[in-house]
């Protein structure tokens, strides 16, 4: 799964920066970035969305993995992390499995992604720990910090309930300052 996010507020930048972030500039120079989620985050969103749409009973990691043709052992680890972070609850026994810990309206995509991958950062320099050889002369650190902030904001506002809705077409999410 990939999330396509348009950055209309980013000043025109050249294609060299766009290439770094697996993105393309449109005709006005605005960057459209393809944010690539990790496999674990992708599996977590698939599983949580499944649990949201099939809430009438518990589901095992193995059953979900089989249904979506994804790695069972990896999904089992992902589900354990989601349970540890309070996104899902685990039930043991013959009718055991996983269920959402809260209503899908109360769980954000960011919460799911962060539970399995930790904080979302497009580059290490957006943190206070990230320094590189170019940090004193860097001209893109602040724009990238704003981009990262915008991505986190969008993912914070997208709920699992919204992800269960059938969309007629893929939408481009525009971000502003």
Q: What would the average pLDDT be, to the nearest integer? A: 78
Give the percentage of residues in beta strands.
5-15%
Q: What is the radius of gyration?
A: 18 Å
| Major β-sheet annotation | 4 strands, mixed
- Summing up helix and strand content along with how strands pair, one would put the structural category as alpha+beta
Molecular shape: elongated
Span between N and C termini?
A: 26 Å
Number of helices: 7
Contiguous uncertain segments of 5+ residues: 1-22
Order of helices and strands: EHEEHHHEEHHHE
Q: Share of helix among residues?
A: 40-55%
Integer tally of domains: 2
Tell me the strand order in the biggest sheet.
2-3-1-6
Q: Give the tally of β-strands.
A: 6
Task: Kindly describe this structure.
With 177 residues, this protein is of the alpha+beta class. The chain has 2 domains: 91 residues, no CATH class; 68 residues, Orthogonal Bundle (Arc Repressor Mutant, subunit A), CATH 1.10.10.10. The protein has 7 helices and 6 strands; from the N terminus they run E-H-E-E-H-H-H-E-E-H-H-H-E. Strand 2 and strand 3 form a beta hairpin. Helix 2 packs across helix 4, helix 2 packs across helix 5 and helix 3 packs across helix 4. The N terminus is likely disordered.
Looking at this protein, list some descriptive labels.
four-stranded mixed sheet; two-stranded antiparallel ribbon; 7 helices; 14% strand; 177 residues; disordered N terminus; 41% helix; Arc Repressor Mutant, subunit A; alpha+beta; 2 domains
């Amino acid at each position: 799964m990939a999330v396509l996010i348009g950055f209309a507020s980013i000043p025109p930048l050249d294609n060299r920066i766009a290439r770094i972030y697996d993105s393309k500039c449109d005709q006005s120079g605005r960057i459209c970035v393809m944010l690539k989620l990790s496999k674990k985050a992708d599996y977590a969103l698939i599983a949580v969305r499944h649990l949201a749409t099939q809430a009438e009973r518990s589901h095992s990691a193995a059953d979900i993995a089989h249904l979506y043709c994804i790695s069972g052992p990896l999904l089992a680890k992902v589900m354990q992390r989601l349970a540890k972070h309070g996104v899902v609850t685990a039930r043991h026994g013959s009718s055991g499995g996983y269920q959402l810990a809260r209503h899908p309206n109360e769980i954000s995509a960011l919460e799911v992604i962060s539970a399995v991958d930790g904080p979302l950062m497009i580059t290490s320099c957006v943190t206070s720990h990230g320094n590189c050889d170019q940090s004193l002369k860097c001209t893109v650190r602040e724009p990238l910090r704003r981009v990262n902030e915008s991505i986190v904001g969008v993912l914070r506002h997208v709920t699992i309930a919204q992800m269960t809705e059938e969309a007629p077409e893929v939408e481009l999410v525009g971000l502003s300052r």
